[in-house]
Amino acid sequence: MTLRWLYRRRFPSSVVGSLQERAVAKETDAILFTTEATPSLFNTVICPPVAQPPTWMETMGAAVGFSGVVVLLASTSDESAQTHHVTLAGNVSSLVGALVIIVYLEGGAACRQWMPLFIYSLSVTGFGAMYLAIASLVLEPSTSVLGLGPAALFGFFGNWQLFGLAFGAAFVAGFFGHACLNSVVVHVSPLLLAVSGLWEPLLGSYMGYLAGVQDEPDFMTLVAAPLLLGGALLVTLGGRKEATTTTGVLASVSRRNSLVVHV
Description:
Layout: H1 2-10, H2 15-32, H3 41-46, H4 56-74, H5 78-83, H6 88-111, H7 117-139, H8 160-184, H9 190-196, H10 200-211, H11 219-262
Helix pairs in contact: 2-11, 4-11, 6-9, 7-8, 9-11
Transmembrane segments: 56-74, 86-105, 117-139, 151-172, 179-199, 219-237
Protein name: EamA domain-containing protein
Keywords: Membrane, Transmembrane, Transmembrane helix
């Protein structure tokens, strides 16, 4: 949102004027039988056709959601901090993951315009499993392809408890998470889906507690939950308001261009 706002400040032309120029250029290209160059991914994500700053509700929602994440981080116990050391590589990995999910959502929104849900989910899941297997073989020398041991790629088939955890995580996260996300990405803004990922610390804590791999969520987790959910709600409402405004501007410019062409 910050990069889009800076882009808007760098090119302070009005939205209506920009849309008019694009409409005229599109009509000229249609007459001359030419097409515009395909925009790059950077231009699509950072420099959208309607470059508008984030609404005040989106900005407030992002701030409220971030404060919830800060509360969760600040409530980390000393014992957990001693057993799980914070490293630069871990922080960089988290930052890269946050950036990759934005590209993933934008790319998914583009592919789902023409690709069926089953084909998209199958290809993404298949390639993801293949890349993780290759990375495990390269980065972890103890990993083996054959066998059912703890270090084997298919070792979860040799332990029913691990198989239940793996199957449950794959079914819940894959079906109710990944498949549902890609089914709605063509109907809602990728920004809303990215903000809804703030639910993950709360839901993940309870899932880990139910699976028996971590302690029960403490009181601070319940304090941070309303902040996370409230931030997502504010971003949702602000995004709908912005979408309505943009639709009205597009309709107004379309009617004006239609009158000019008929005259």
